[in-house]
Amino acid sequence: MNKLLAISVTAATLTSLLGMAKPASAFTFGTEGMSFNNTQQVRFNFTSSNNAFQSTLKVFEVLSTGQLQEATNGVLYEEVKASDNGPRNGFQSTLGNAAQQVNDTFTFLAGRVYTLGLVSTFTRTKAGTVSTIDAGAVYSTSRFNLNGSMGKQRAAFGSTGAPEGQAFNAASSFQSANPFDGPVAIAFEDIKWGNGDNDFNDFVVSAQAVPEPLTMGGLALGAAGLAAARRSRKRHTTQA
């Protein structure tokens, strides 16, 4: 085969393989829900937690009735205590201390709709008695955060929120993101009522779609093909 033709064919093959690396189907990933046309695995990484609550991040499936059901293997990260050292470090939780990983990946089944839920409790000491209070849950899908009859945004996609205690007024600009483009920060405000500080940094993770093995292998094959073509061209030039 003509070497120039071989190089052109290899480049065309790599271009085709690069096309395979792109998401093969439509998806929704934001405050309107999470869904993929094809079954898709997503990896979640813990970033930070800055709140006095003891929280657990879970995946919920949205049923056809509109109700939420905790997904199988849907617990991602949980706090075994409210924070590492209480208010001394701003109620921060670090991974391996107050925060623990349960599952770092979740498989979203094709055509189903999901949402992330941050479920929290609060420990209160009153008159020497310690009690655990249900602090409720906030969801990455805004319509489930009812404030009266309106759904309230409680997750920002593509942002880690504002500094502690400062309102994140730009939250409405971060309502969706593309998990195929790289890690996407998802930052939660843990109180769904109007009396929160709205800093959207109470619990932060990142999410990224996991490439299919065929895609990764194809990219490696394409890169190897281009390298071989370059070596062939170099030999041809030297012989000339």
Rg, alpha carbons: 23 Å
Please indicate the percent range of residues in DSSP E strands (runs of 2 or more). 35-45%
Coarse structural class: alpha+beta
Task: Specify the overall morphology.
Answer: globular
Give the number of DSSP strands.
Answer: 15
Order of helices and strands: HEEEEEEEEEEEEEEEH
Classify the oligomer: single chain
Unreliable residue stretches = 2-23, 214-221
N/C terminus separation: 17 Å
How would you describe this structure to a colleague?
Helices cover 19% and strands 39% of the residues. It is built from 2 helices and 15 strands. The protein has helices at residues 3-21, 213-239; strands spanning 27-30, 33-36, 40-50, 54-62, 68-79, 92-93, 99-101, 105-108, 113-126, 129-139, 146-147, 150-151, 155-157, 184-188, 203-209. The strands form 4 sheets. Strands 3, 6, 8, 13, 14 and 15 form a 6-stranded antiparallel sheet that branches. The model is unreliable at 2-23 and 214-221 (pLDDT under 50).
What is this structure, in a nutshell?
With 240 residues, the chain is α+β, with helices and mostly antiparallel strands.
